[in-house]
Amino acid sequence: MANPLLDHWYRLLAGRSRRQHHDGEEQPLPDLAGEQATAGILLVLRRMRVPLIVLILIFAVSVLGLTLVPGVDAEGHPARLSIFDAFYFMSYTATTIGFGELPYPFTDAQRMWVTASIFLSVIGWAYAIGSLLSLLQDRAFRRAVDRRMFGRKVAHLADPFWLLVGYGETARRIARSLDDLGYRFVVLERDEERVASVDLDDYLADAPAYAGDARSTATLALAGLGHPRCEGVLALSESDDVNLDVAMTTALVRPRLPVIAQTGSAEIEERMHAFGSPEVINPLDRFGDHLRILYRSPAAYQLLGWLTSAPGSPLPARRSPVPPGRWLVCGYGAFGRDVTADLRAEGVDVTVVEGDPVPGTSERFEAEALEAAGLARAAAFVAATDNDMTNLWLVEQARRINPGAFLVARQNKSGNATLYESVGVDLEMVRADVVAHEVLARLAHPALMGFLSRVPGMGEAWAAAMVHTLVERCGTSTPYLWRVALTAEETPALAPWLAGGGVPLADLMRSPQGRDHSLAAVPLALERDGEVTTGPSGEEVLREGDLLLLAGRATARRSLAATLFQETTAAYVIDDRTVPSTWLWRRLSRASR
Amino acid sequence: MNLEKVVFGFFVVLAATLNFGFFIGDLGDPELHNVYELFAAVVVNLIATVLKFGDRTQIGAVHLATSLVASLQLIAAAVVWTWASHVSGAGLTPEATASVVSLSGGALFANVVSVVLLVVETVSFQQRR
């Protein structure tokens, strides 16, 4: 119920800032609070108008009639009920309470009238209550209530949260990992059944979910895009257009908010980059990179897969090295082209087999064509079409013709996972898997991406040693990642060492429970003046301003925090000295010195 | 002609006229104020209130507010009348009558505002059909 005049003035005054473009400025979002609050109530009031009027009329006619019908008092004198008596009688009769308490017994004329009014009022009540109940079942009403509840839940979120657009296979895995990592999230998904499944998925923290169109800015605002605790947006819907819209809206409205978006098309990726700087994940493209890493070093592939898997996942088995030789790629769509380009960049000899284009479906292949392309002598085979049945057939053919070949297959539908399993391939490209790893790498820690991109270049031996150290110190489930900045604010207890000769990394990593043992953590990378050392050695001496990326158990993080914050612990861990912790003892020990 | 507007206008005006009919006359004289007229005024005001439910516009909101005021005042008048004639034992004394009638006078004022709003709405209505 906005005042049109006020609204006009507001627009006139606010209009001055219209011209300013999105140069890092946060734009106001549509305010939906007032509209939400009244939508449900207004709907109830409007639908209940007729039933309520019917009820009032029936009541009025019954009461009026009862006062007019002649009656007699105890002595037989003619007496009529007063309006109050009639109202009282109708109140307990119409609501079927039926006290049976009256001033005088009714005459037959009064009884006739009462009979009629009882039937009337029962109809009136049934009508009113029926309308109210059917209104509660009403779709429009339920949606209005859902929207309001969702908006209220999101507005009252006090913890930092991520806005998750889409709730398909991939998004679900991300949601599970977010929950495990202790992040809150809000789900916005078009499909109502999927929204209902958010409740069934049983997350530790309450996850508000709403079935709505993420392409509307108002819905995004409702889901907390303008919320001060919103950490970022994950556009993981299956539709590229929706992801593009979400990325663009976020870039325009909240330019500083991080966006991670998935897309299967290079064109959409380009358009996303036109607005702001979202992290775009193209699983078809990224898989080629993963393949390159595996080709170069199976241990690096294992390490990357492990560090970017959901919390608590076991260490994945190390894959056997890819045999050197010629590769055969079947299917030359966007995915096939990417894989081919990536392999050629790695210096691999690749032969591409294109199928005959069949209108309306995917490519079709002849067994003879595969043999003609030299499948029997190929080292590896990639089934890269966008049809699962074709891929399965291709894998089967490849196995028959060349049993020793390394088999790679693209899995398009998650429902076909068991089929691929029973066929048995060496490496599967599963879209949800690739996206999940990529998103987690970006979510876990901003510093992690810098480390991960350096791992493939470190060589097989280094990666294998790193995996070995990590397993030895932290066990085989996914380590926890965190970063420590060696500054006066974050590591006050280290100030004396940092001001002096620095702290040897190996000493810092000793356990406060016993300095002969090492913490259950491994330093992954050391950043100094913008230069990153991957896997710094124990002899490395830490200086003020260094950034350390660590992987380890959560308990190790707490122990390390004790070293970084408590001077006495730091003195014990680094120098094996016992420093008095209270003021009095400190005074005394200084006096005795 | 819009039937909805006819019904709406009818109840708004009828609520005001019935209220006026009950209110007019010497303040303390029970003879001049028929209780059935008060009853009718309460019922018609309640209907008018319900008719105004669910209107999103600014004028609709003020309409609903005035009707709620009138209904509350008239119900208060009916309660005072019931108390005087049934509970107190003294019957409808001039004092009791005066308080019933003055309460209905307050409701009358709200009803007049309602009628004024109705007229304003009609005059400013652009669509001539």
Structure overview:
The complex is a heterodimer of chains A (593) and B (129). Chain A is α/β, with parallel strands linked by helices and 593 residues long. Chain A has 25 helices and 21 strands. In chain A, helix 10 (240-253) links the parallel strand 6 and strand 7 (259-262). In chain A, helix 2 (33-47) runs antiparallel to helix 6 (139-155), helix 3 packs across helix 4 (83-94) and helix 12 crosses helix 13 (298-307). The longest helix of chain A is centred in the first third of the chain and has 30 residues, at 108-137. Mean pLDDT of chain A is 82; it is low at 1-6 and 8-22. Chain B is mainly α. Chain B is built from four helices and no strands. In chain B, helix 1 (3-23) runs antiparallel to helix 2 and helix 3 packs antiparallel against helix 4. The radius of gyration of chain B is 16 Å and the shape is elongated. The A-B interface holds A 1, 3-4, 38, 42-43, 45-49, 52-53, 56-57, 60, 63-64, 67, 82-84 and B 35-36, 39, 43, 46-47, 50-51, 53-54, 56-58, 61, 82, 85-86.
Tell me the layout of helices and strands.
The complex is a heterodimer of chains A (593) and B (129).
Chain A: H1 4-14, H2 33-47, H3 49-68, E1 71-72, E2 78-79, H4 83-94, H5 108-137, H6 139-155, E3 161-165, H7 169-181, E4 184-189, H8 192-200, E5 209-211, H9 217-222, E6 230-235, H10 240-253, E7 259-262, H11 266-274, E8 279-281, H12 283-296, H13 298-307, E9 327-330, H14 334-345, E10 350-353, H15 367-372, E11 380-383, H16 388-401, E12 406-411, H17 417-423, E13 427-430, H18 431-444, H19 446-452, H20 460-474, E14 480-485, H21 495-499, E15 503-504, H22 505-508, E16 510-511, E17 514-518, E18 521-528, E19 531-534, E20 541-542, E21 547-552, H23 554-565, H24 567-575, H25 583-592
Parallel strand pairs in A: 3-4, 3-6, 4-5, 6-7, 7-8, 9-10, 9-11, 11-12, 12-13
Antiparallel strand pairs in A: 1-2, 14-21, 15-20, 16-17, 18-19, 18-21
Chain B: H1 3-23, H2 35-51, H3 58-87, H4 94-123
